[in-house]
Every structure is written in structure tokens, then in C-alpha cells.
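Below is our example:
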Amino acid sequence: MAYRSQLTAESLTRATRLLAVSASTKETTQLVSARDGFATLDSLAHIIADLTFDVRDEFPKLAAWKRWGPLYRRWESAPLLCGGLWRGRWGRASYPELAWGFTVEKRSLRLAVWMDVGKDDDVTNGKSIRVTELLGHGGGLDRDRAWQTVRRQLQSWKFSTRA
């Protein structure tokens, strides 16, 4: 695996602070050591990429969709490290997009899964959970729990695991 095997609560907290600072527009933002945060964010980016491949494997109808990310962006002034799948042309008025990623909401790191249609980034449906709910018995981030979260959300939107 390309990501660190043990993403602990402490390393996720440092990554959360780094993401929050990167989205801040205040000049008086507290200084944050980037040393450990970037390694964790890199590992989270690898998890996002892995989730994209898992979705394509598990949901055959999505195998033809185009992959994007992982990338960093801000949405409604919140930092977002995300990736996903989309179908259609970017220039068209509407195209379906499925996405998942890590964001900071209320000073906590969350895994978000959402679906939208259109180039205006109007989220039509979405769910986010705290990353602390994805920590395994050893205290590290459980990648399989992240996958089950994404999988359950896609199934709730009636995406089928059958071809």
C-alpha cells in the first residue's frame, strides 16, 4: 500500500490543523508544523484514490465513468481533499458526479461522500462522518471502514453492485 499503515488519531489531528490553516483567510492564523501533516495528507490522498478504484470494481455500471482526483480545493470556505468519478462533458450544463474526500467541519476531520449534477457544484445529496468513527481497534484509521461508508452511501443512492 502506498499510504501509511497506521494513521493515528494524533497524525489525523495534525493533518486537520494543516487543512484548516490552508483554507483560512485570516492573517493571524496560528502557525502549524507541516512536517507530520503533509505525510498524513499524502496518505489520505492515496486512500481517496484507492476508494475510487474500489468503487469502479464494486459497481460495474460506474466502470466507464471518468476518474478525477485526488485534489485539494475549497468548497464554501472549507478545505477539501477529494476525488471521485464523473460522466459526460465538462462544458455541458449538467453531468453526474460522485465524490468522496476528507474535509474539516467544526474543527474535526470528516469523510464526506456526495453526489451532484451540473457544473455549478450544487450538491444534491451528501453525507459526512467524523474520521474518529473510522478508527480501528489499534487506534489507526481503518481503510475498510472508510470503504464501507462510501459503499453504503452509493447503495443508498440506488447504485447497484450488479452489472
In short: The first helix runs from residue 9 to 23. The chain has a mean pLDDT of 82. Residues 62 and 137 are 32 Å apart (CA to CA).
